[in-house]
Prior knowledge:
- This protein is of the alpha/beta class.
- It is built from four helices and nine strands, in the order αβαββββαβββαβ.
- It folds into two domains: 1-29; 31-165, 2,3-Dihydroxybiphenyl 1,2-Dioxygenase, domain 1 (Roll).
Amino acid sequence: MKKFLLLGLFCVAFLLGYSFNRLTNPVNKGPRVTGLGGIFFKAKDPKGLEAWYSKNLGIRVGDYGANFEWHQGMDSTKKGFTVWAPFKETTKYFQPSEKQFMINYRVEGLTQLLAQMKAAGILPTDSVEKTSYGDFVHLMDPEGNKIELWEPNDVGYAKMGSNTTK
Length: 166
């Protein structure tokens, strides 16, 4: 009986410690990436590729690509969006990256995140662009891939009336 009691106490202590760690761990707080905001890639025929994906995979494409709508965490009232968009093969939008794709990361605390990155010697390739649907800035990763950081305003994004793929 004492062994089961000790085992039970050990399990309770472990779960309490684990829960406390999850709540207080700095990785879970402050400026950080919270998800993928979009996948952007180059294509020889973006409109043709969009049509193919629409016809064959049911992706509903609008003016800015396909918008995948989802709900944030346990709060079903907070919408989030992930964009999928082919760009013309000749686009300059990915420069200075020579790669064929760019990933857009959803972030929290963009200003603080940029300050942390600057302190680490990582500088953006442009200045923060503020829009009604969020703030954007670009960086280069160590492999030479251009990435986009987006602190979204999902309410503003939803007001744009984009078709979503659900």
